[in-house]
Design a protein that fits this description.
13 strands; 2 domains; alpha/beta; Rossmann fold; seven-stranded parallel β-sheet; six-stranded parallel β-sheet
């Protein structure tokens, strides 16, 4: 059993956006705590921060967000390893305490030099290598999903037409959701359900739907909770994923875990999660013709949709369960500990 100190900014531990989802750091810490002693050190201030809880873990607030404060807190209960997320403190604290240090880089702009780095997808690793961080110090450990919650077993939302496309995400400027609406005239007897917010994005997209006269074929649910998503994904013939460039989109894995075929734009984490022609179809970003062709081809072949869905469920369970992600994270810790200078190990 390891004593693990996870250091995370407030934003990494509180639910954000309009697609209710347990933060990845919280889910990872909980999974690690199944067989290890995990303490979560929360840096910075924020609304609701005093109420942050992480199941199975001890939570310690560090309002001043300084290495000195972290060193003081860690000295009371020295860990075997320090793992930071979304904060630039921790490296010097780990060095002063003589323990290994690992940093998860969640931002696409973050290329800070650290002893060992964890990124969620291979495209991020390539970017860090290009920035000068040695390949052997970078581990790819994706975000996971609760495969006991996101499952094909259970009730499905009722359909209004023969085919259903589901689109879940944040309706921000440039999200590309209008491009999916625009495919509907080429897809007979097909409805589109769009889940997510915020309200401004819903209003903007709803206006577009009215302008193209597709209100009878598009349903917009607004914000959606984790409890509602499995039933929605189960009702889908196809789930479409259009993430911002370079990001890992866990929505695709949730849909796969529920047995839905996926059509996604290539790039970022989707290149890793969706296997083209096996669990779904990858299309080039900002290519309406390719998107329409992929959707039309899948909806015309329901047996292929079912095949992709079954394979996607197997892949989600085998590759993206939080227990698997915890094991891969522990393997990264092992490499960090093995890489410590011999004098540091002797001193420890």
């Amino acid at each position: 059993m390891l004593k693990i100190a996870i250091v995370a900014g407030m934003g990494q531990l509180t639910e954000r956006g309009t697609v209710g989802r347990t933060p990845a750091v919280t889910a990872l810490a909980t999974a690690l705590a199944a067989e290890n002693a995990v303490s979560v050190y929360v840096t910075g201030s924020g609304s609701g921060g005093d109420g942050v809880t992480v199941p199975g873990c001890r939570v310690v607030r560090l309002p001043k967000k300084t290495d000195r404060e972290l060193v003081s807190a860690l000295a009371d209960d020295p860990p075997d390893i320090v793992h930071t997320h979304g904060t630039n403190i921790g490296a010097s604290a780990a060095e002063r305490l003589g323990v290994p240090f690992v940093r998860s880089l969640h931002s696409t702009d973050d290329t800070e030099e650290t002893a060992r780095v964890i990124v969620p997808c291979t495209s991020r690793r390539s970017a860090l290598i290009a920035a000068g961080i040695p390949r052997h110090r970078i581990d790819v450990v994706p975000y996971g999903v609760d495969v006991d919650h996101f499952t094909p077993d259970g009730p499905a939302a009722a359909k209004n037409r023969r085919h259903r496309i589901v689109l879940v995400g944040e309706l921000t400027e440039g999200c590309g959701f209008a491009s999916v609406v625009a495919t509907l005239p080429a897809l007979p007897d097909t409805e589109l359900v769009i889940a997510g917010g915020p309200l401004a994005g819903v209003k903007r997209l709803r206006k577009f739907v009215r302008d193209v006269d597709l209100t009878d074929r598009v349903t917009m649910t607004g914000p959606i909770t984790a409890g509602e998503r499995p039933g929605l994904f189960r009702s889908a013939d196809v789930a479409v994923c259009l993430p911002r460039p370079g990001l890992f989109d866990v929505t695709a894995v949730e849909a796969m875990a529920c047995g839905a075929a996926v059509v996604a734009t290539s790039g970022g984490g989707l290149t890793d999660t969706v296997i083209d022609g096996v669990t779904g179809v990858l299309v080039p970003p900002r290519d309406p013709h390719a998107l329409t062709t992929a959707l039309r081809g899948l909806l015309a072949r329901p047996a292929l949709c079912e095949q992709f869905g079954a394979t996607g469920r197997d892949r989600a369970w085998a590759r993206y369960s939080w227990s698997r992600i915890a094991k891969e994270t522990l393997a990264s810790y092992d490499r960090a500990m093995a890489a410590r200078p011999k004098e540091a190990v002797a001193a420890g």
